[in-house]
Design goal:
about 350 residues; alpha+beta; 4-stranded mixed beta sheet; two-stranded antiparallel ribbon; 6 strands
Length: about 350
């Protein structure tokens, strides 16, 4: 999976080295202590056009990186899906809101109810819509008429919002009825809007490590996750919260056996994972353990060792897909739209 060129590109960024001079236009620029190449595509009025050593430009929606970013996302999602299937779990890829909500609303209504981008006006309308659904004084006929009337008053969809809100994976344990609705995403934590928070967090961890060393105690901040990763994960939870509210209502009405849990499977480009992402890995690993406990153990290996191997393989697969994808993004950055690096 990991190509040689992508590996080199990833390692250069990991070590803080400038990308290879594949555009052949590197020049001295103010604010950089190394010659930098200028992007050959035009995008964003507040985006630096220079291909920097930290990969910030490459991860600022440079148009030539679109395919590489899509492939990185696909490969990360595929690693999770394959592991979940190996663990004996049922997996659906990119289920739409209509399917997830058991067909309770039409596909068009789902697009209107759950757009990708939720404006303040939309949130007000959704709150009112939820009050209609939860009003116990309304008869089914009156509720249906009120819902139809409310649907017509929802804000118009953005032109680019063709599909509405869509998850990456729906994973279900058929034995227990427990299910996870998963959205996979990656954040580049050295971006200009994030680096201040990350730097402050690193300083806090260094200070805590020094105190712990002096007092010979455990450094409590060692496993403290990136504040940017946690912040982005919280935004994902809010984004999908309205979808989960309807699922919760369906659970109360006994239309589904249990309420699904939403998981923002969020990683940073250097491999750090959000706490809920780590919890999902543990949940999948536990399902794998349950599966193999019901089958004969081969080669005299213990269940614990088999589970450890499975979990290591899953984590390694995720980091490999992440690094390979990051390298591909770096390699494609700056090129005119539709072209690929010449090797």
């Amino acid at each position: 999976m990991f190509s040689n060129d992508n590996y080199i590109a990833f390692v250069r960024v990991f070590l803080g080295l400038p990308p290879a001079n594949y555009l052949s236009n590197a020049t001295e620029q103010k604010g950089f202590d190394y010659p930098v190449q200028r992007c050959l595509s035009v995008h964003g009025i507040n985006v630096s056009p220079f291909l920097d050593a930290t990969g910030n430009h490459a991860n600022a929606n440079c148009p030539s990186t679109y395919l590489a970013r899509a492939k990185k996302h696909f490969n990360l999602t595929r690693v999770l899906a394959v592991a979940a299937q190996e663990a004996g779990l049922a997996v659906r890829s990119e289920p739409d809101s209509y399917t997830l909500l058991l067909g309770e609303f039409s596909k068009l209504d789902c697009r209107k109810l759950f757009p990708k981008t939720a404006s303040a006006e939309y949130k007000r309308h959704f709150t009112a819509f939820l009050h209609i659904l939860e009003n116990p004084t309304l008869s089914p006929e009156i509720r249906e008429l009120a819902v139809k009337k409310h649907m017509s008053s929802l804000p118009a969809l953005a032109d680019a919002d063709f599909t509405g809100l869509r998850l990456d994976l729906a994973i279900e344990d058929l034995a227990t009825g427990e299910s996870k609705w998963v959205d996979v995403s990656v954040v580049h934590t050295t971006a200009a809007s994030y680096v201040g928070k990350e730097f402050k967090h690193v300083l806090q961890r260094q200070a805590a490590a020094g105190v712990a060393a002096d007092k010979k105690t455990i450094e409590l901040l060692l496993q403290d996750p990136s504040p940017v990763v946690c912040e982005r994960a919280a935004k994902k939870v809010e984004k999908y919260s309205r979808l989960l509210l309807i699922a919760k209502k369906q659970t109360i009405e006994r239309k589904r056996p249990s309420c699904p849990a939403f998981v923002p499977f969020l990683l940073s480009d250097v491999g750090e994972m959000a706490p809920m992402a780590l919890d999902l890995i543990s949940w999948i690993s536990q399902a794998y353990k349950t599966k193999i406990m019901a089958t004969p153990i081969l080669n005299g290996e213990s269940i614990a060792e088999l589970v450890r191997r499975f979990k290591r393989k899953l984590q390694a697969g995720l980091r490999l897909a992440l690094a390979d994808g990051a390298g591909a993004v770096i390699q494609s950055a700056g090129l005119p739209w539709g072209r690929a690096p010449q090797v």
